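Hi team,

Filling in the usual template for the complex we talked about on Friday. All components are listed, including any nucleic acid strands or ligand strings, so the model treats them as one assembly.

SUBMITTER: L.P.
PURPOSE: interface mapping
COMPONENTS: two
RESIDUES: 1059
SEQUENCES:
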Amino acid sequence: MLGRTDSGRRLLVVLVVFVVGASALVARLGYWQLAQHDQLVASARRQIYSQDTVPSRRGQIYDRSGTVVLAASVMRDRLIVSAERMSAADRSRMVDFLTAQLALDPVAAATIQARLETGKPYLVLAKDLAPEQSQAIEAAARDAGIDGISFESDSIRSYPQAGGGPNSTLAANLIGFVNRDGQGQYGVEQYYQDVLAGEPKVVEADRDASGKPLAETERTINPGVPGVDIRLTIDAGLQLALEQEVMAAHIADSAKSVSAVVMDPWTGEIYAEATYPSYDANNYAAVAGADSSRFLDPVVSQVYEPGSVFKMLTVLAALEQGTTTMQTVYKDTGRMKLDNGKTLISDSDNKAMGDLKLEDGIAYSRNIIAAKVAFGLAPTRAEASTILHDVWVRLGFGQPTGIDVSGEVRGLVNDPATTPWREIDLANGSFGQGVAVTQIQLTAAYAALVNGGQLVRPHVVAGVGPKTVEFPKSAPVLDPKLSPQLAALMEHVLQNPWYAEKARIPGYWYGGKTGTAQVWDAVNNRWLSNTYNFSSIGFIGRQAGRPDLIIAVRIGETRPLRNPLGQLILPINATELFRRVATDAVTTPGLLPALDPSGSTAALGDQ
Amino acid sequence: MDIAGRLAVPRRGSARPVVSERPPARATSDVLRRERHQADYSILLAVVALSAIGILMVYSSSAMFAYTSRDDTLAIVGPQIFWGALGLLVMVGVMRIDYRWLRLVSVPAYLIAIVLLVLVFVPSLGRVVGGSARWLVLGPLPAVHPAEVAKLALIVYLAHWLANKGNQVARFKAGMLPFLLIAVPVIALVFKEPDLGTTVVITLTAFTMFFVAGASLLQLGAMGGIGVVGVLLIGLKDYQLERIQTFINPWADPLGAGFHTIQGLLALGLGGILGTGLGESKLAGGLYLPNAWNDFIFAIIGEEFGFIGAGLVIVLFLLLAYAGVRTALRAPDTFGALLAAGITAWLCYQAFINIAVVVALLPVTGITLPFISAGGSSLLVSFAAAGVLLSISRETLEPKGRGAKPEARKSETRTAELRRTDEAADRGRGHRGSYLPGAGRRERAASPTRRP
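RESULT (copied from the run log):
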């Protein structure tokens, strides 16, 4: 008799193996189906549904009046032809049809004929068709019985206002442009990208067997948020005038670039801000290929040595310290040795004008006198350095002003606490050398000098949608009582015989300060010979005691002539450009506030 | 009368005392009742449920693909239904035949299987699909998958041989060595195709049978070690190595090597608890998940019926495993036990490996899910195997001791007694062997080797 040799116990072991295996499978299955469910679903959705984002309508950009459209998004259609399965007769009919509809010349018609002969299923044969135009073509095609034409819509950003120069659009540097991906680039378009673009609509569709989305299954996942319109503080009329002025100066002076800013000193609203050369935002691609640095707005994105316009800050520091008055007499020596004879400063014309009152020393822009004022700030050089640096920082230098366009740089002012200043550093600082500032920083600082010490935040957007944008005011950065003195000094400067004729703007109260600085060649590490930046910053108002506008102009990197007196001569110098801009600005209808019937009693009090 | 006495029948040449009378009728009827009772319907339930799910899911996952590629949604599920129906007939037929007849055909079947496996490599007959020569095309017959046939043939032959060998299987020269000589040709030929998944299934099944038959654990352990070293020495094909690397991190190459695994997991993930519903699979249809109606059909089940549905499939296979092992435990003879164990092990290993691949517990191997995946050879052979299992289950020695009847409890003691020998399978033929059923063999003299 044959005994059983199969083992029951071992069979049970096998069963246990199966049970353990099945449990492992169930556990793993549960891990994927329950624990990892959400991640896998998200991942699968991306794969199996065609998800598409449809950009929402981008917000328009208006000028301060809310009536002039500076930037708008419009729909433009592309005409698509499928040349698949097209006979020769079909092709010639198509060419004839398109020639008639699009008013093609024979060369263009021949090109289309050649492209149709490739037999490709997707040919873009016309772009930038207005919706009415494409509808008309569609109807005509239907009537003529022509098949294979379809249209695709694209949102195009359009900048309808022509700028002050050739091949430019209005305020291009300030507004920026929108690239093909719908991303704002530079300026307001970039800074307010989220507001303008809104949120895109997200649609999802199943795919058919060949992987293409099925239109009838399309459903909206996220309806999106439409873009919000923006109203700028820019006055379109003044902006155009300003652009024309800077272009004129650019040509007359053979400058590298000329820019100008007109700002309300009380609110920080930028009324106009222009640079030449500018660019055509409707055709930004051409500029991008040639010289993309032109997209940068030099007013906010470029630093330079301001030169003598900084003397006002030196005077402010001395007035605060009580170490000088407008009538204090200083001796202008023309040259001055510092640091035990190792360094030398001099006036721009190298001439000594002798004893001058402070106000005249500033009016004649004597470097020696500015340096002496700076040295007199405190008994020691270290203290004087700290005081002067503190004034700069209080007035916003070395930090961004917070203007609401993209690409603002902060500039650089050396802190004596980090590296103690030598005598030459203090002297240079007193007349604006050895510092790097932007034009918008200077504009904001000058506004604070004359408006009672408010360091306003410059801005270009007045309203987002129905809302008005509020920019909070800061605490005064200087004693309000000093403002009238500083304004009076600036007024005195422009009465100086050097400027008086060229700066005259009859019937208005105005003042300002000019600055000239050599240009540092960072590539070759030397000063460019006979190449200067000319600045002029000042205020103008309808009534004495109340500055209505701050105007800052800069003629960048030009090569002036020198007259026998040693003065630098430009066909349109900075003062002249200031006058022209100021004249344009004050004559812009509706820009200046109404006259105060009580006369010259101004916000600043008595002069 | 003691139990042994009651059962005692005349034995020629036996040392035990001969009882001259025929056993009482009651005892005989007891034996006869054992001989044919109802099949184990849980096996039938599992098999029918799985193949029904299979046909449903093959249709659900292939309809779109079949429609787009052949303009007929039934192009893939149609043959599956045909083979399923045929398989069902085969199963019912096989179930009604005494499984011991298989011992007669075991050797020829084994040899034919080897020949078929060799023929795969004949260029004019073999069809190479995706770098593997797995299909055999013989004249006008539909292409067959010889590895499927080989699985069953090897199981039958191994059961036959191991049952004959008795306790000797624990020895090396009489057990391990000939066992390897039987199993390795099949394993090597399938590996050469190359079909790694089926190789693994066959190897595991063969060794499981050997283990159950009483192999020496020491020898088995040594074989396992040698086997691992051997695989490393022979080396895996590049694509097999790549699959293993992909298994470690499927997301390393989501569009290349990891594609299958990731698509399977995405399908499972989409299913969640309750699934997307029948026919609602987004990954089926051949767009994303290739072989959706084949090796990866479990992923589609997971997607359309969720964790519940996919878990049910695992539970059905577990039911099959339980019922199969129970049949083996109660089989009337060693051959039947080993056959039941082999068939159960094969179906379950194959199912669990297939599922483990889908849930990324194992690298992609390319084996079908028994009863569910589309594939005629696989379905037919699986049904035949299930028929054999059912046939064995008709003769199991059921423990009946759970009732209150003392007689029944007695009967249980008797069952335990019967369980220790192959005696029950003798069925009164008098030779005490379990060799073959039927009257024709009744007069056959028991050979000396079949004596204990």
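MY TAKE: Chain A touches chain B through 41 residues (CB under 8 Å). Confidence is low (pLDDT under 50) at residues 600-607 of chain A.

Thanks, L.
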